[in-house]
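Task card 7
Instruction: Convert sequence to structure tokens.
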Amino acid sequence: MKDEDKFLQKRNNGRWHYARRVPKKYADFDERGYIRKGLDTKSIEVARERRDLLIEADDLYWASVSSAADSLSASSLNAEQTKQAVRRYEAAKRRAMAKGFMYTPNADLLEYPDITELVSRIQTLPANSLPQEVEAEAVLGLTPKPSVTVSQAFDVFCEQIAVSELLGKSDAQKKSWRKVKLRAVNNFIKLNGDLGMDEITREHARGFYKWWAKRLQPKGNRKPLTSNSANRDIGNIRKLYRQYWEYEGEEDRDNPFRNLSFGKHGLKDIPHFEDDWVRTRILTPGVFKGLNPEAMLLVYAMIETGCRPSELSSLSQDTIILDHEVPHILIRPTSDRQLKSKSSVREIPLVGVSLAAMRKAPNGFPHYRDKGNLLSGSLMNAFRVRALFPTENHRIYSFRHSFEKRMLEAGVDYGLRCLLMGHKNSRPSYGDGGSMEYRRDELLKIAHPMPKGFRESLDLL
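Output:
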């Protein structure tokens, strides 16, 4: 962005606002016209960070809505007819079941080698008068099966088929889950149109594969995407196809997306932070001046716990134990939030800068609770602005990798390393991983020295 203060307005009270006009080409989709949102800060640096997140959110929203509108415009004309056809078909299935039969298309009934099934169905219809049309349609399988489009099948998938996948997820986790899968659907529709699920062929699937192949090896100076993104998209559309038809009772239908994937080559591992970098750059008092205090404390909390950012931002007063002989945190799932895996459940002693940070946040981090994308975006931007990443491949997750590396080099027991990292232990497990005192003493072996003036800098928050 050439103008680093673009879309920023300073109000009379000294606070900054995000102010932006909705582009004309998106005006039909976004009726806000002119967007103005308070950024709750008088700091221009903080305002720029928050402005960047809002720009990204609006751009992604406009891109996704316009893409869906472009690809669905033709089919939307018949949306109501399709809904009516689906309701009619579902009603026919229920009427057939009420008569004691599974709904079977008439063409399939006529192909049965034994006509007993067809005769028994006819016999259930009124004998002395013409049967009602809807009853005959149901029993004799005369109701045409509607062609459900990819976008409609995705709605069915989200609302009915994948219910068990969403149980226990928070609203933010559900939104993230849906966003990733919707991307695959939108990409497929963008390439092929909103086809009926029964119209998708192997050629469509291969075309989608080739489309991704070009994005993995683009011409010119365009940055190639990773095979991980391609495989996720193809895998999600393959799963939608398979589970939709299983839900419809057609388990044996060939999946046109079968056996299409890319090898995992060229993926970059996230590097760790060297100890000297953490001690001389990241732990320097004042380096995070202007950053949201909760975000700063979360950085320090990661350093000596190795926790995932989302695990720490979800902590509450009940899971932050500071009045114990060994202060510690509890990583637990809640009724509305899942953890990555069962092995993620754990108890981690607090030492060094992480203990100092958590003492300043005894009730957790309400500003970032269940807002992982906001936290990630804020920290990535803060680290880049302050040149706190040694290389372009470093990420906030680098703290977690550093934590594991320091434990390995200090000779911390493998089982305890797995337990503290929340990894599955591939070896036979004996005991509970040791007492909290033992765990604390092991972590003290790797703790970074407390920088001079560090506690005082936290007292200013």
